[in-house]
Structure formats: C-alpha cells, structure tokens
Design brief:
The complex is a heterodimer of chains A (about 240) and B (about 220). Chain A has about 240 residues and is mainly α. Chain A has two domains: about 140 residues, no CATH class; about 80 residues, no CATH class. Chain B contains seven helices and two strands; from the N terminus they run H-H-E-E-H-H-H-H-H. In chain B, strands 1-2 form a two-stranded antiparallel ribbon. In chain B, strand 1 and strand 2 form a beta hairpin. Classes of the chains: A mainly alpha (about 240), B mainly alpha (about 220). Chains A and B meet through helix 1, helix 3, helix 5, helix 6 and helix 7 of A and helix 1, helix 2, strand 1, helix 4 and helix 6 of B.
Chain lengths: ~240, ~220
C-alpha cells in the first residue's frame, strides 16, 4: 500500500497542468480511455490508446518506477490469459496485454494527478451514503494506520517477534493487529466527536471544487478529442 | 489469495458486468440494512477498512514466500455481514484506483471478499456459545477464508475456461491449475486463522465487548 501513499503525495504535491485541471474532466477522460480499451477490437487503436495513456502519465510526472510497478500486476495476470488464448499469432497476445496495461496506466494518470477526495466527491454522490462517507473516512484513517502498522512491525521485529515457529509469529502478528483495531476504535470515537463539534450535518460532502473548470481543462478536452478521433478512425481496422 | 488482482480488459463483458451489477445491488441492500446504524459505527467501520488496507501492505515472511493478509474473517466478525460488505467494496475500489485489480472487476472483488466476510459473524456468534471468543473468531475466519479462496479460484478458472474454449487449458489445463491453486488456498486459510486467533485473544483480554455476543463496556457502546 506504499503505492497509495506515493500516489497521494504525487497527486497533492504535483504542479503540472493536469494537476490544475478539474477532477470531473479527468475522470471523464480516464473512463473514455478505459471503456475504449475494454471494448475495441482494433489492435492499432489499442496501441494509440496505450501511447496516449503513457504520455498522460509521464507528463503528469508520475515516477517511471511507480508506473512500472503498477504495470507489473496486469502483465502477470494477462500472461495467464495469453496462455489460455494462445493461437500461434502475435496479435491476440498483444491485444490481451495492451488492454489491461492501457486501463492501468490511465487510472494511474488519473490518481497521480487528482487527490483522492476529488475523485471520491463525484462517486459519493451516486453511491449509498454509508459507502460514500466510508470512502472519505477510510481515506482519512488510512495513512495514519499505515504509519502505525509500519512502526508496529518494526517494534515486533526488534523485540524478537519475527523469530520462532510460523505459528508463534502469526499469532503475534494477530495480537499486534489487535492493538491497531483498538487504536482504530478509539480513533473513530474521537473523530466522530470532532465531527460533531464542527457541526457535522449527517453527510460528508467532500470537496466541492471537483467540478471547477480551469483553463487547464482545455488540455483534457484536447486529449479527449484526440482519443475520440483516433477511435473513429481506427475502430474497424486491425 | 482472496483478492482478485485481475486487471481491466481481461475478463469478458459477460463475466464482469453481472459481477458489477450484483455487487452494486448487494451494496444498496447492505446500505438499506445499515441505514439506522449510528455515525460512530460508520467511523469505526471506516477505521477497520483502513486497517484492512494497511494489513494488505504488510508482508509476512514465511520461508521463501511472502504473504499479504486480507483480515477477511476478523472484519466480518467485528462488523457483521452488511457493514463488512460495504467495507470490502470501499477497499476494493481504493485498490483498483492504484492499479491493484481493474475497475471493472471491483464487483467480483467485493463479492468474493464480501461472501467470506458475510458468513464470519454468524459463524462466530453460533460458536461463541460453546467456545471462547478467540477460538470462535479463528474458526469463523477459517470458514470465511476457505469460502473466499474457493470463490476466487472458481472465478479465475471460470474466466480462463470461457476465454480458452477449444484449447488445451479448457479441458486439461483447468484441473491442473486447480491443483496448483489448492496449496495456496490451504496456506491462506491456515495463515489467516492463526492471525485471527492472536487478534481474538488480544481483544478478548482487552476489549471483549468488541467481539460478538459480549455485552458492551459501560460508556463504550458503539450504538450510543
């Protein structure tokens, strides 16, 4: 989950035009690329979409290492499906590999240029209230718990908790996680008290500027037009 | 093991779309079932979701392998079926947003994890009449992990069989892959059960009221 922390840092600290564009326009562009990649039968269109997604991610200054790490997951799974559909040609494997890679890179671009709350805000308006609020509250608790679990693990190792039989180590890991459950419980009580003091109305609205249009949105629009033109031109071709 | 890291564009539409639709339906039902629950419960639920994500980042070294926990059983036992499903949906969505599994597979991820988490609390509650809470939590975790692991293998193999019609994998390969997945499935059940046992013992000593079937401590009731 260090990927979550890294993405959060890049999204909030980045200063590229993509970071200035509204979350809504970037979500729309990412969805457009994702849907085209999932449904298109054209390998050349997939190649163009993959190129566009890589260009987007690199221009948003997503670190290459993070991008490669994220791309490793789809490749590992896609290889299994390449094996399953092996027909002796290179076209089918290329298609199977490019589809998930394009989707993955598009999502990484979106999350690397948009803070999580800005992505959650429109989602929370269509999801049930408990789930919408859960996205924000989970996000708020996450980085604190990641830090704590890292410290806890170091402490367990330093005190010899990583020695002995697997049964002992796993049971100790469970006890350590128990302290995190308790911490999470106490934290949730304090957090709720704070929310009430600040006049919580019963629903977390998230940020309201996810749809604020800026001049940088022209760039997103241009990218979307380019993608649509490529789709219209290449859809029926190989 | 129980988290479907299948990326977008791999599974055919006729597999991922029904999964997504069913997960959204279950989500709406679970939201309706929990709409009377208090806000502190939602805050605790979110903390547990964050803990699930944090636990997934922890690498447990087991010889040559490293295992990433899912904490499915404890989450189900602590929260109950409806709230646990909401938590696993949120966790799956957040994972998909960093490239761990596709957005189109969020439905299947939530269903696979949610099925396991959903049975955990009823099992723990039934067992708590005869066994101590830690053992009940461990047994419930074993059942939850076994179910989710089996569903994971079923979805993976189902997807592979569908796309490999007429090829080696469709007829001969599926049992081979199932046999390869069986030890991983069993290892997942054992590891999660032992971790849940430790977690349950700790909570039993320190805050037994958080476990199902235990009376809340004065001033510590979540439903307050």
């Amino acid at each position: 989950m260090n990927a979550l922390s890294s993405m959060d840092l890049i999204a909030t600290a980045g200063r590229t035009p993509w970071h200035r564009a509204s979350a809504l326009s970037k979500i729309a562009l990412a969805l457009l690329i994702l849907l085209l990649a999932v449904f298109t039968p054209s390998l050349s269109l997939l190649g163009v979409l993959f190129g566009v997604a890589i260009l987007l991610a690199l221009s948003a200054r997503v670190p290459v290492r993070l991008l490669l790490t994220a791309m490793a997951y789809p490749v590992a799974f896609a290889l299994l499906f390449v094996l399953a559909r092996w027909d002796g040609t290179w076209i089918t494997p290329a298609r199977i590999l490019l589809r998930p890679l394009t989707c993955c890179v598009a999502v990484i671009w979106l999350m690397g240029s948009t803070p999580y709350p800005d992505v959650f805000a429109p989602l929370s308006r269509v999801l049930p209230r408990a789930v919408g609020d859960g996205l924000f509250l989970t996000y708020r608790a996450l980085f604190d718990l990641i830090d704590r679990s890292g410290r806890l693990w170091r402490a367990i190792r330093l005190r010899g908790g990583a020695e002995g039989s697997a049964r002992r180590r796993l049971s100790l890991a469970g006890e350590g996680l128990g302290t995190l459950v308790l911490y999470g419980f106490e934290r949730s009580q304090r957090f709720y008290a704070t929310m009430q003091l600040r006049g919580h109305s019963g629903r977390i609205c998230g940020c309201r500027h996810y749809a604020d249009v800026t001049p940088a949105d022209l760039l997103t629009l241009a990218a979307a037009v380019g993608v649509i033109l490529a789709a219209v031109t290449l859809w029926g071709r190989l | 093991m129980t988290h479907l890291h299948i990326p977008d564009g791999i599974l055919p539409l006729r597999i991922w779309l029904p999964g997504l639709a069913l997960a959204l339906l279950v989500l709406v039902v679970s939201a309706w079932l929990t709409h009377r629950e208090t806000r502190p419960k939602l805050a605790f639920q979110s903390s547990i979701g964050a803990l699930m994500l944090a636990a997934m980042a922890i690498e447990l070294p087991l010889g040559p392998l490293e295992y990433h926990l899912s904490l499915l059983g404890p989450v189900g036992v602590l929260l109950g079926p409806a709230a646990a499903f909401q938590v696993v949906f949120v966790v799956s969505a957040m994972l998909a947003l960093v490239g761990h599994g596709g957005l189109t597979v969020v439905g299947w991820n939530a269903l696979v994890l949610g099925a396991g988490a959903g049975i955990a609390r009823p099992i723990a509650r039934a067992l708590s009449a005869r066994f101590d809470p830690a053992v009940s939590m461990a047994a419930a975790t074993a059942c939850a992990q076994a179910l989710s692991g089996a569903l994971w293998v079923a979805v993976m193999l189902g997807g592979l069989r569908l796309v490999s019609r007429g090829r080696w994998l469709h007829d001969t390969g599926t049992p081979v892959l199932a046999a390869l997945a069986a030890p991983l499935w069993a290892a997942g059940v054992v590891i999660e059960t032992l971790v849940a046992l430790g977690l349950g013992r700790f909570l039993q000593r320190v805050r037994p009221d958080l476990l199902p079937g235990r009376a809340p401590l004065p001033g510590k009731d979540l439903a307050r």
